[in-house]
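Notes to self after the Tuesday call (sharing in case useful).
The group wants a holo model before anyone commits to mutagenesis around the pocket. I volunteered. Ligand is orotidine-5'-monophosphate. Logging inputs and output together so the record is complete.
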Amino acid sequence: MTTKQLVDQIWKKKSFLCVGLDVDLNKVPKHILETEDPIFEFNKKIIDATHHLAVAYKPNIAFYEAYGLKGWKSLEKTIQYLNTNHPEVFTIADAKRGDIGNTSSMYAKAFFEDLEFDSVTVAPYMGKDSIEPFLAFEDKHTIMLALTSNQGAFDFQTKMVDGTELYKQVLDTSKDWKNADNLMYVVGATKAEYLADIRSIIPDSFLLVPGVGAQGGNLQDVCKYGINDQIGLLINSSRGIIYASDGLDFDMVAGEKAKELQLQMAEILDAKK
Ligand SMILES: O=C(O)c1cc(=O)[nH]c(=O)n1[C@@H]1O[C@H](COP(=O)(O)O)[C@@H](O)[C@H]1O
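Result:
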């Protein structure tokens, strides 16, 4: 998917919501566990209830790998379901990969070619040659961790290196990498106060912003400094939407939670016009 197609969808749906598909079988409703493939059944119901409200879906790969071969199969069925029935949505494999060049190429093939995701999350720690193999794929997007939502972000990311915070160096340096147009960045919603600085370095890039809902990040705070001319934000909520109810009505309640966020986004978009 091209960035323009993503931006068009944002305006069409009046939403920049990303629904996180982090399926934990200890949290899904009991009746779903009785189906043959509970992870896929759960995802299918969540997607059916939210696809008109969300522009992106982000399965976190850990939640599938944890169930071995069966989990991987459920992931494959989920992405096929999205690509077949809702080809307009932007799909994110949240895998946080990155390794020496030839290994990164294989990770990129796995997520972009075999599973046909639009994007994958990567960690910048191993540097340029670990990320450029992902950037080589046309109309695919590589979403690099910049300033994460967790407490551990302060262990390394905000430390001063040569007079600049490390996360700012990550942003600035990566702008010169080959095919840098295919880069997006992760900034946690819990770090909204950093967004003005971040936008001064990467004014035009898309940001994946997890951390609203369960982690306490605030949508309005993120938009205040994070939004740009092409909106440039994908705001993710996982647990706040998919586990809002563990009853028979879980999909309906997930739809309501998604709608609450979408309505706030529509208001923000209307004010931008
Ligand atoms: O890359 C991510 O998506 C990510 C980065 C980050 O800084 N913080 C963060 O929470 N995430 C992911 O975003 C999702 C957040 O889930 P909830 O807190 O349940 O909305 C999880 O899949 C996390 O792994």
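Two things stood out.
The beta strands are 17-21, 56-59, 90-97, 119-122, 141-147, 160-161, 164-165, 183-187, 207-210, 233-237.
The chain has one domain: 3-272.
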